[in-house]
Amino acid sequence: MSEILRVDFHTHIISENFLNLAEKYNDDHWPVLEKTCSCGAKIMIQGKNFREITNQAWDAEERIRDMDKEGIDVQVLSPIPVTFSYWADGKKGLEMAAFQNDFIASIVKQHPDRFIGLGTVPLQDVDLAIQEMERAVLELNLKGLEIGSNVNGQNLDDEQLEPFFKAAHELKVPLFVHPWATVGRERMPRHNFMYMVGMPSETALAAGSIIMSGMLDRYPDLKICFAHGGGSLPYLLPRMDKGFEVWPHIQKTVEPPSYYAKKLYYDSLVYEPKNLQFMIEEFGTDRIIAGSDYPFLLRETPSGKVVDHLDKLSEEEKAKIHGLNAIQFLGLDAGAYQKKIEHTK
């Protein structure tokens, strides 16, 4: 274990006994988990291998062994984005979300000192999404939600989604936005571009939609964190500010886009210290949260490695990014959490 609290905010988990809605509803659009051995599985969609995963994706004990080896005190657990299934009927989507929320809550209950849970909701039906959000945080004690970057091709500023964000603001539910169903995916079948280019572009579009919508004026205490360092957003902000300046008819906010970008949070998964340094200069150390994308191939090992390579940061600033910012973002007591972690060391 490390001397400072280290939280990996960006990790994904799935039940080994994953719900098989493809079989239940005779619809192979649903993701299905097919075990290939005790140590691995394939996520199948329409009879095709969408993604291969290891038992790290479901085995809590395996995760804890990795955490101990890599010096990570706490993982924040969230679903694998392909399971969002926003394309489905709302009630069936609720069934999928509720199953995952129950599973994540059970893992946290078994290991409360090592895991914090984020839930998921069926955003294709806002009323059901709000209902499940309330259950997830008020009954299951999950500490926030992971949501997708778009809902069936509609950006997050779509007016039909407004009641959801209003409810999240009122309930003080933190939101972690992860890319899925990426923009331009029909042009990215080669080179694994969906992961390398599509996801960062999709994340920037999602963040830009929130920023330009006026939502952060209406709901000033809304907490939203974007995966993968906000994707390409940090580097697009000057262009967005210029567009805001020259096209008054698009203005829905009081201030330019760069002002609101500083009110959002971003994980640290950018790999390159120069990129992270640029983000810190733009947004400040209080808005960056260490996250690795465990247990997937593109993950950073260990979480926060890029933070440790920044010589300009003080130890206090590194401690914020490594763990304290995550605890603060999730509305937890950092001091109490630090004491609880120290007790286990």
Report on this model:
The protein is an alpha/beta fold. It has one domain (about 5-15, about 60-345): TIM Barrel (Alpha-Beta Barrel), CATH 3.20.20. Helices cover about 40% and strands about 15% of the residues. It is built from 13 helices and 13 strands. It has helices at about 20-25, 60-70, 90-110, 125-140, 160-170, 195-215, 215-220, 235-245, 255-260, 275-285, 305-310, 315-330, 335-345; strands at about 5-15, 30-35, 40-45, 50-55, 75-80, 115, 145-150, 150, 155, 175-180, 225, 265, 290. The strands form four sheets. It has a five-stranded parallel sheet with strand order 7-10-11-12-13. Strand 3 (about 40-45) and strand 4 (about 50-55) form a beta hairpin. The longest helix has 21 residues, at about 90-110. The protein is globular and about 55 Å long. The relative contact order is 0.13.
Please provide a brief summary of the model.
One of its GO terms (molecular function) is hydrolase activity. This protein is α/β, with parallel strands linked by helices.
